[in-house]
Design goal:
The chain has 15 helices and 44 strands. The chain has 757 residues and is an alpha+beta fold. Strands 1, 2, 3, 19, 20, 21, 22, 23, 24, 25 and 26 form an 11-stranded mixed sheet that branches. The protein is globular, with a radius of gyration of 29 Å. 46% of the residues are buried.
Length: 757
């Protein structure tokens, strides 16, 4: 008999004269994970799982909720001729779409077929409406920069050699071309005409027709992407006026439709107009952008929202439903179809933190915390409450690699947790690419419609860069669903603490480098009353589903009564409420503060009273209460109570402000300030004021405060999370700024009107 040493214990293998085979390495200890099903509860918008130009097979497979018809070519789409101009993407050419029956146009155009395809798969459509003022003039190929007409050029279309890229052989732009070579001028009536056609074909928005309309695509880059018809950047006032005209046309044609704008290209779209981006990219005027200066130094994003709010207040019609800004990671090599080397792969996984993490300094030219989703949410909350936030283009690349799938799964979890209202991947992956499987983990992990829950609950990781965790409750069966993304490259064993969930057995589904062909069912995971410990393979996405057992109590308590306010101080509000009932007994209540589209758990009580503390003076808060039972069932939220804390006079005592230039470069610098309460009374909200001593010093992007500058005077106002400073407490704030000539330190600071040391 032949003895195989691989089947023997190590000691026996040695005794037989063979060497013991290496034993499998034990998994490294991973960071602790925690999930609290009673806290942080808020709806996850299904629209965060959207794409651009998804094909029907993938759309059906993942039950795609929203599909966008967008991009540079749609800016000049002529629906009657079914022709686009490809702009700077492809030699500024008019290219008719393939159409089997052009005589029937506009019926049966590419856009009609796109919408019909969405209806067949159950997806909503986001349709891009031209707002530039020019569209392709006819159903025929044409060039904006004909070599025969405008002379030799740097590059020409290899399939159409007369079509150039609009640059002379020396690389300078050709100017003075005739826009009518390719295009015809149109106005808002074009939008009215198109929507009228769409309603005839598909019905109005409320009757199954097109529900969402983008106001063009990245208009702050028109001067670059569409420079054959527009050479100057789009300024503050023109963006506002075009939005008024075109959005009003949408609302008049289909009042149930939702409008998304300004559809900017990225972070700069929140800060600068297209006119300033155009001007300053050529002249280096970033320290004092002229268009921004002409509008009180206010960033474009908040100014735009203010204008939209003013329109509604004046006319009684909301024109803007979604504040929409695109985002592509600016870190080197991250956005691209190739995964890159190990350094780039690690950077790709790390860079998703720019979406939410205030401690993450973007590792690109941005070089500051971005907090993209909270930043957008703060802007709409402050400048146009009720507006939703969208990101109708984004991509972290590497669609064909497990590294791209890990990043995509992380993004989808972040979108739901952070309360984004819509996100559309540019463009859709093929059905068999790893990034498509990242969507399946959330939308169809078992091939039978199994999906991540619709109500986000609190999930935390001691080290998000190693193990990211996201959790949600599913409405149909009240199952707790968890997605864990192992980004570390090592197999990790980690404890998972659970609150508000009973013991049971979790189903486990996984996508990993071990099987790139699809999501696989792994061994079930036993779950104890307080949690479990599990091993997560390297480079893997794990979906755990903890269902409610058939014999388990799945009936939630009744809804508690609306809270009633008792004693109210500058920093606290006493609350009480009528009790809930439950067939096995209520074990406790959780008090939540309503924030935007979600809630923040403030604390718990076994009885029917609770005092919310740590609040900001003279500030309105809305509270709701939920009840829970021993089986972890949670009631619906009570009706909300809104109450304002008491005002506070200017605090007595002292304050100290330290100011440092942490980094400096020609024309720019990073300023960091620390505010300390050296007095005996708490600051319940603060406003810091100082003057720059030199002309040309200007605050740009700021963080941890609301920054404003008028002339030389700078104001920084506290945010909700850092407004209260107890005696001896400090908070750090900062900004990236610009300077010309010299960059001296401000001489004096005041806080809430009093001079600080």
């Amino acid at each position: 008999m032949r003895i195989t040493t691989a089947l023997l214990p190590a000691a026996l293998a040695v005794a037989l004269g063979g060497l013991a085979l290496p034993q499998p390495a034990r998994a490294a200890t991973g960071p602790a994970l925690a999930v609290d099903a009673t806290a942080g509860r808020h709806p996850i918008s299904p629209y965060v799982y959207g794409m651009n130009f998804a094909d029907a097979a993938l759309a059906r497979d993942i039950r795609l909720p929203v599909n966008r018809y967008g991009g540079n070519a749609t800016t000049r789409y002529n629906f009657r001729a079914d022709t686009t101009n490809r702009a700077a993407d492809w030699y500024f050419e008019n290219i008719p779409n393939d159409n089997a029956d052009p005589e029937s146009l506009p019926k049966g155009s590419e856009s009609d077929r796109f919408i019909a395809g969405d209806k067949a798969t159950g997806a909503e459509t986001v349709l891009t409406l031209p707002m530039l003022g020019w569209i392709a003039k006819e159903r025929a190929r044409a060039c904006a920069f004909s070599v025969a007409k405008y002379g030799p050029q740097e590059s020409t279309d290899p399939w159409a050699p007369d079509c150039g890229n609009g640059k002379k052989p020396d690389g300078t732009n050709i100017t003075g071309n005739d826009p009518r070579d390719t295009s015809v001028a149109v106005g808002p009536e074009y939008v009215t005409d198109w929507i009228t056609h769409l309603k005839t074909e598909f019905g109005a928005a409320g009757d199954g027709g097109v529900r969402f309309y983008n106001l063009d695509n990245e208009p702050d880059l028109w001067h670059s992407t569409h420079r054959d018809v527009r050479s100057a950047g789009l300024g503050y006032d023109e963006l506002r006026d075009r939005t008024y005209e075109y959005a009003a046309a949408v609302k008049a044609a289909d009042p149930g439709a939702k409008v998304l704008g300004p559809v900017g290209w990225g972070l700069n779209s929140i800060t600068y107009s297209g006119l300033d981006q155009d001007t300053c990219s050529r002249t280096g005027c970033w320290s004092n952008p002229p268009d921004k200066a002409a509008h009180g130094g206010q960033d474009l994003g908040p100014w735009y929202l203010d204008q939209m709010r003013a329109y509604e207040q004046q006319h009684g019609t909301r024109l803007l439903d979604y504040f929409d800004i695109h985002l592509y990671p600016q870190q080197s090599g991250v956005f691209g179809q190739e995964p890159g080397n190990d350094t780039t792969k690690a950077l790709r996984l790390r860079s998703t933190r720019q979406l939410w993490d205030p401690t993450y300094v973007d590792e690109s030219w941005i070089n500051q915390p971005v907090r993209f989703i909270p930043r957008m949410r703060d802007l709409v909350d402050q400048h146009y409450p009720g507006t939703k936030i969208a990101m109708t283009e984004y991509s972290w690349g590497a669609y064909g690699d497990i590294n791209g799938a890990l990043a995509q799964a992380d993004l989808l979890g972040i979108f739901g947790r952070e309360g984004l209202d819509m996100a559309n991947l540019w463009t859709a992956p093929t059905t068999d690419q790893p990034v498509a499987h990242a969507f399946r983990i959330f939308r169809n992990y078992d091939g039978d419609g199994g999906a991540f829950g619709e109500t986000s609950v609190r999930a935390t990781s001691a080290d998000q860069d190693k193990l990211a965790v996201y959790a949600a409750e599913r409405s149909a069966d009240k199952a707790l669903t968890l997605v864990v993304v192992n980004k570390s490259g090592d197999e990790l064993t980690a404890p998972v603490a659970l609150t508000g969930v009973g013991a049971g057995t979790a189903e486990v589904y996984r996508y990993s480098g071990a099987n790139l062909a699809g999501v696989v069912r792994a061994a079930d995971q036993p779950v104890g009353a307080t949690g479990f410990t599990a091993t997560f393979p390297a480079n893997s996405i794990t979906h755990l589903v903890l269902p409610r057992g058939d014999d388990a109590d799945s009936e939630a308590p009744t809804v508690p009564g609306r809270p009633v306010a008792g004693a109210v101080t500058t920093d606290s509000i006493a609350l009480s409420w009528a009790p809930a009932t439950d067939r096995v007994g209520v074990t406790g209540y959780d008090v939540h503060r309503v924030e935007g589209t979600g809630t923040e758990k403030l604390g718990s009580a076994t009885g029917t009273s609770f005092t919310a503390t740590g609040l900001t003076a003279d500030t309105a808060y809305t509270f709701v209460v939920t009840a829970r039972d021993a089986a972890g069932n949670v009631s619906a939220a009570s009706p909300g109570l809104t109450v304002r804390t008491a005002p506070v006079s200017t605090p007595t005592g002292g304050c100290q402000v330290s100011y440092a230039v942490s980094s400096s470069w020609p024309g720019g610098f990073t300023g960091q300030l620390t505010i300390t309460n050296t007095g005996a009374a708490a600051f319940d909200g603060w406003q810091l004021d100082f003057d720059f001593p030199a002309a040309g010093q200007q605050v740009g992007h700021g963080w941890s405060a609301t920054w404003k500058q008028t002339g030389a005077s700078v104001t920084a106002e506290s945010l909700s999370w850092n407004g209260r400073l107890a005696p001896g407490a400090s908070t750090a704030i900062g900004f990236n700024g610009t300077w010309t000539g010299s960059n001296p330190v401000p001489a004096a600071f005041t806080l809430n009107g009093q001079r600080c040391a």
